Structure formats: C-alpha cells, structure tokens
Recover the amino acids of this structure.
C-alpha cells in the first residue's frame, strides 16, 4: 500500500511539473534573423456573402432600387388601392445594364405610393442627414414625390418633397432630410402626388455621412473597423462569387465599373446555396464594383489583390468550363484589368479609371487566376493564363488555387503541378476545427524556401458546421493565434494571410463564423478579429528565431511562440500562446549585442472560458489588455494567464 501511495504521489508531481517547476526558458536569437517578412503579410478577404456588400458595407438603404431583381417588385409594396395599370414595370432593352423602370400614370389627386423594406430594415440615426435620389423622365407634367421614413412602429421620423421637372429625357434629382430618431428597422415611403405620367428608376436612399463622405459611398463604421487593422492587402471579390453557380452568373469585373446606373445586376450565388439559409432577395447591384474595391484598398493603405474567373464555374455546383479554344475572352479580361488598374490615361481602360476620378494608377502587382478550382481542367486553363500574363506583364505575380482543402489527393496534385509550373503564389485554404490549427502550427517549417510563396487566403477555426449557427469563440480564436505563430515563423514562405469570411449580418448571414458581425446600426469584431488585428498591428520586418530546448515552440506543453523584429519602430515583438487551463511562468533570454530597453509593454487576450464570444451586447468581452513590463538585463520573466495570447513589445536601442 505504501508503494502504491508513493507511486501515485510521484505521478501527480510529474503531471503537475509544468506548473511546479521554475520558469520555462525561451531563447530569442535577435542577432540571427531567419528571413524577411512581407510588408503586406496580414490582410483581409472580402466576399459579398452574409449581406457583405449590398445590405452591408455598401451604404445604399433601398433594396432593389432599379426593379432589376428576378421579381421586379421584391422589396417593394404598393400603398393604397392603386388603379389597374397605374404602376407598371417597363422593360426597355435599349437601356444599358438597367432595362427596367417603373411607369407611373396618375390621372387624379388620389393617393398613390410605394414602400421599400430595405435590407432587413433600414438603419437610421437620429440627427443624421439622408439623401433620396432617383432617375426619371416625365411624359406628362404634374407629378411630384413626397418621401418619408417610418420607424418600426410606423411613426414618421423624416420627410421631404421633390418636384419633377417636365423634361422628356432621363435625368436625376435628389433631396436631403434629417432623421428625427434612431432605428435599425426603418422603411421608406415614396408618395406620388399630383397628376401626370413619368418613368422612375434608381430610387435610392443613402446617409450623407459615408466613408470619406463620398456621395453614395460605403458605410463608415464597417470601413473603419477594417482600417483599424491596418491590413496589408484586400483580396476581392471572393471567394465563390468569382466562379458563380454557372458561368453565366460568374463575376465579370467589366460590368461593375462605369456609371452606377449602367452596371448590370446579377443574382448572388449565395442566394439559394444553403437550403437552411435561403436568401431569395440576395442580388449583386455592383454599387461596390472593382473601382470602389481598388479605392477602398488605397484608402486604408492595403494592396489590391483581385481574383478573376479562370473559365470555370463552381465545381460544387455546375462545374461548367469554357472550352480552351474560347478562353481568350477570359484572358483578355485579365489583361484589361491590369490596364484599368495601371494603364496610362490614353489607354481604353486607363481612361475609364481616370474618367471615374482616379487618373493615377492603382499600382496593381498581384492577380489571382481562379478560386478554389481543382483538377487537370484547372491546370490547363491556368497554364493558358500564365503564358500570356508572363509574356505581357511579367511584373504581375500570379496567385493560383490549391483547391478547397489543405491536404488530400486534390491538394497534392495541385501543389505538385503548380510548383512545376513555377507559379508565384499558391493560395491555400483551411476551414478546420481548433485541433487542426493547433496541430498545424509547424505546417510550413519544412516547406521549400526557394519555391512558390504561400497565400493563406482563407482560414477560420470552426467549432460548428459553417452553414449552422456558429460563433467565433475564444477557443477558435486562440487556436488560430497558435497557428499564426507558425505562419509568422515561416514568413519567408507564407507571404500573406487572411481570415474568411470577413463580414456577417446578424439578420442575413449564410455562413458562419465570420470575422466581423454587423446589424443595420452596429459593428463589432470577434475574438478572431482581435487576434488577427494584434498580428497586423504588430508585424515585423525580420523573422527572429525563438527556441525552447533548441526547438521551435510548436505545441510542447501546449505552448506556441514566434518572434519578429520591426526595423521601422525598432522593436522586438514576441507572440506567445498559452493553451493551458493554468498560468505558466516563462523567461525569455534575448541573445543580442544590441541594447534592450529596461521597460516594454504587453497586450493580452485571455479568458479561462474557451466558449465565450463577443456579441452586439458585449462587443469587447474579449479585447486586448495592456500592461507594462520590466527587463533584468537581457532577460524577461512573465506569467501568462490560462488560455491566453500575448504580444510582448520590447524597444531595441
């Protein structure tokens, strides 16, 4: 019995050794940088999913403003008892990109009007100014419009009147008014007063306060939360949006530039993708088009990373392919996009960019060909793109898809073939459970240093199925923080990384979890947002080896670490993940001939409950906590909280 007790005690001491022993030692080799880090390492991936564009970052409040949805009355309803034939949808195919309009015929002063429900309502703020606008042409003079905003209780909270000129040609008109109260569920009434006949189109309502106060621009708070990350790049427009359910509904960038009223609407492929999350009113108006994407990237200091269709529709849907002999149109789209982004103003597409307000080039340097495509049919089409792009634009780096999964037969085939083609950047995606991210922290330690660079183009740790009611929990975010130490340690191979999807609307999502959640008035970052933001705001210029027992810190005792040096700010940055239920003590011994400041700082995300998440009610439940730290010589000892991610910042003199 005595031997059993002694053995039990010995096992208990051994099991708790991590907590009972002296501080664990980590060696930081500041004078032995292991490689350079891309200045655009950490970025964002945008796709119009979960009401990301229409109903989201594009600040238009009216749904189906030009009556171009499959059901032209979707989002609208008639007010009062309108006479038969007094409100007609007219289809005029001579009008480029926007054939439909609403013909109004009113013979008396009877009451007639329309109501628009917005995107799950309209977010309206007290004291804010709004602009109603439309295109119209009058056939018979005498009509005027009276617009009003109603709250969720049908109380009027804003109104204005707009007289229509008697001109036979299409023209625009607008009027501004101020909202008297705040609501997330407003609706818009458009009353038609007087008597006469006219055609109405592009009935629109925008807040006047948009990002940079651009008329009919982007939702300010949603852009700001991106700008706060200081992302190095924006990948757009997707995602499966690029492919489309079939080639007829693929994303075609040329249809998203030029005058707004001439951009051709298409159905959003997420409209009916998930039977449990049907969204039949989800279309793409392209008010947020390629020009606006480039402008957004420039605004927030990010590189634009557009992805184009390679001649293949989504292989999970129809899997349509364009014949190789007809691929020229798709390749020409890529060449013309480069001209649109970088070309001189005397070129066709460079002139369009200038006419839209940006004569200076956008400095495009990377271009994706295909999204999550796979198989020999993809390699054939990619090779055709590569041949032309390399000949005509060797300055443009090509990003190629490695398929939908980070391992398996498809991945292995593509990885081998893409490397054989000497593709510049391979786009790897991983939607996996937390355990995969923890075990994958060493994924790139043995990748070829002289081969293709890696773009972690879509990553997210999933604790539930993506089309279920998933949350971005602290467990998911902390596993991502651990995995990202591996990306940072191998930043000489991994040149870019972005979470996906970016936005989710609480009343209109199809896929979860998402990096940032919104409703019609509010926006908040998830724990995953807080993790990537800490990486993005604390990126370095040089990889600095950090070792424990001469080994990379990749899960030993559930600890993960990376370190970098920031040449610009003269700082040593250490990122440390404690994926344990108890606190640990650690000592960092900094091997350098340089002088380290005696005081530094640390930012910590931590919570003992892995299931917690941020929310509209508690948007900062998980947020960075800052504290000062002190060094003894070139040694730093710190206690790391249970289930924590910490960024240590040490000035280097």
């Amino acid at each position: 019995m005595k031997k059993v007790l002694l053995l039990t005690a010995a096992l208990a001491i051994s099991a708790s050794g991590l907590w009972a022993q002296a501080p664990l030692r980590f060696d930081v080799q500041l004078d032995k940088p292991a490689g350079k880090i891309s200045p655009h390492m950490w970025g964002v991936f945008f796709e119009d999913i979960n009401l990301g564009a229409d109903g989201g970052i594009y600040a238009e409040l009216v749904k189906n403003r030009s009556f171009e949805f499959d059901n032209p009355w979707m989002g609208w309803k008639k007010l009062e008892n309108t006479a038969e034939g007094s409100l007609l949808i007219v289809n005029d195919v001579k009008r480029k990109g926007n054939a439909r309009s609403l013909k109004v015929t009113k013979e008396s002063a009877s009451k007639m009007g329309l109501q628009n429900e917005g995107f799950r309502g309209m977010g309206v703020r007290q004291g804010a100014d709004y602009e109603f606008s439309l295109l119209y042409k009058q056939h018979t003079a005498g009509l005027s419009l009276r617009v009003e905003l109603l709250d969720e209780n049908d109380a009027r909270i804003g109104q204005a009147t707009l007289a229509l000129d008697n001109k036979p040609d299409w023209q625009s008109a607008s009027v501004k008014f101020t909202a008297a109260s705040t609501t997330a569920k407003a609706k818009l009434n458009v009353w038609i007063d007087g008597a006469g006949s006219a055609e109405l189109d592009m009935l629109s309502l925008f807040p006047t306060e948009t990002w940079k106060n651009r008329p009919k621009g982007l939702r300010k708070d949603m852009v700001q939360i991106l700008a706060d990350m200081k992302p190095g790049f924006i990948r757009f427009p997707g995602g499966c949006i690029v492919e489309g359910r079939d080639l007829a509904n693929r994303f075609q960038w040329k249809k998203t530039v030029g005058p707004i009223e001439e951009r051709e609407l298409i159905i959003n492929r997420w409209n009916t993708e998930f039977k449990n999350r049907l969204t039949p009113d989800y279309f793409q108006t392209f008010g947020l088009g390629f020009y606006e994407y480039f402008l957004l990237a420039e605004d927030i200091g990010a590189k634009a990373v557009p992805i184009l269709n390679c001649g293949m529709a989504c292989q999970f849907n129809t899997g349509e392919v364009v014949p190789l002999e007809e691929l020229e149109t798709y390749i020409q789209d890529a060449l013309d996009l480069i001209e649109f982004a970088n070309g001189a103003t005397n070129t066709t597409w460079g002139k369009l960019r200038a006419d839209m307000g940006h004569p200076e080039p956008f400095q495009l340097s990377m271009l994706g060909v295909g999204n999550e495509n796979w198989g020999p049919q993809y390699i054939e089409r990619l090779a055709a793109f590569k041949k032309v792009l390399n000949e005509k634009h060797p300055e443009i780096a090509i990003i190629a898809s490695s398929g939908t999964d980070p391992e398996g037969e498809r991945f292995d085939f593509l990885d081998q073939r893409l490397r054989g083609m000497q593709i510049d950047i391979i786009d790897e995606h991983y939607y996996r459970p937390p355990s995969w991210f923890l075990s994958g922290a060493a994924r790139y330690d043995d990748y070829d240093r002289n081969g293709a660079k890696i773009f972690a183009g879509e990553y997210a740790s999933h604790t539930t199925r993506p089309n279920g009611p998933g949350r971005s929990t602290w467990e998911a975010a902390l596993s991502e923080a651990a995995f990202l130490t591996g990306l940072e340690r191998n930043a000489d191979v991994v040149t870019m990384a972005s979470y996906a999807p970016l936005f989710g609307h609480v009343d209109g999502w199809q896929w979860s979890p998402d990096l940032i959640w919104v409703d019609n008035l509010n926006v908040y970052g998830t724990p995953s947002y807080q993790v990537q933001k800490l990486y993005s705001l604390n990126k370095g210029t040089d990889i600095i080896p950090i070792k424990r027992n001469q080994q990379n810190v990749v899960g030993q005792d559930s600890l993960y670490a990376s370190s970098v040096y920031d040449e610009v700010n003269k700082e040593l940055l250490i990122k440390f993940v404690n994926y344990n239920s108890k606190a640990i003590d650690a000592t960092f011994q900094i091997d350098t001939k340089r002088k380290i400041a005696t005081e530094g700082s640390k930012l910590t995300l931590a919570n003992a409950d892995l299931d917690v998440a941020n929310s509209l009610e508690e948007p900062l439940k998980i947020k960075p906590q800052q504290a000062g730290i002190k060094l003894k010589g070139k040694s730093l000892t710190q206690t790391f909280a249970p289930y924590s991610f910490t960024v240590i910042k040490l000035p280097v003199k």
User: Anything to note?
Assistant: The chain has three domains: 21-37+544-651, 45-57+211-333+366-539, 76-207. The first strand starts at residue 24 and ends at 28. Residues 1-17 have pLDDT under 50 and may be disordered. Residues 376-392 form the longest helix (17 residues).
